[in-house]
Design brief:
Number of strands: 0
Distance between the termini: 48 Å
Shape: globular
Helix content: over 70%
Order of helices and strands: HHHHHHHHH
Number of helices: 9
Oligomer: single chain
Structural class: mainly alpha
Strand content: under 5%
Radius of gyration: 16 Å
Length: 184
């Protein structure tokens, strides 16, 4: 990477961190864990953060510059946070790189599956991808379909957000409209 590309990437660090932080807040909403029985584990939280980050990146990549550069900054913020989090959990320095690489690969696979389903407008395919990844194939009855509905609603909501706000590192997610009874 040349110095110009490096500086261009670094230009959006603060905004990328802001967008990533919003994705983390959205992924921590208790309804996902209490109602949809998303595993409240490191993997479960990673998967929900990944869903929200994938949606932001999808939104940004459809824009002209600085959209793609900002999408890269969100991705970079996510994996910088994963690196720090693993170290805080006591993962040895020698293992952190391998673990982050595995998370990177997992995120790209999941984001690709979600992207394909969203682009095709196929909620059943999206629910299947979410069930496979978020619940490792064992989603409670109706939970993957409800999460797919939420993801598709967020896709529409994000599409309507002003690019100027996104460029400032500001994004909003709609509250999860998931019934709190009978889903789990």
């Amino acid at each position: 990477m040349g110095i110009a590309a490096f500086l261009r990437r670094r230009r959006f660090d603060r905004q990328g961190t802001g967008l990533y932080s919003a994705a983390v807040r959205a992924a921590r909403v208790p309804v996902f864990y209490a109602t949809l029985a998303v595993p409240d584990t490191l993997d479960g939280r990673f998967d929900l953060i990944g869903v929200h980050v994938a949606l932001i990146i999808r939104r940004l990549r459809r824009e002209p510059e600085p959209g793609p550069a900002l999408a890269q900054a969100v991705f970079d913020a996510m994996f910088q946070d994963m690196d720090v989090s693993l170290r805080e959990l006591g993962v040895s320095d020698l293992s952190v790189g391998k673990r982050v690489k595995a998370m990177w690969d997992a995120f790209h696979g999941r984001a690709g599956a979600y992207e394909a389903a969203i682009a095709a407008g196929d909620s059943a395919e999206l629910a299947a991808a979410l069930a496979r990844n978020v619940w490792r194939g064992a989603a409670p009855a109706g939970a993957a379909e409800q999460l797919a509905g939420y993801v598709l609603e967020q896709e529409v909501h994000l599409a309507g957000q002003d690019m100027a706000a996104l460029t400032r590192g500001e994004v909003s997610f709609r509250p999860a409209a998931i019934p709190t009874q009978g889903a789990a």
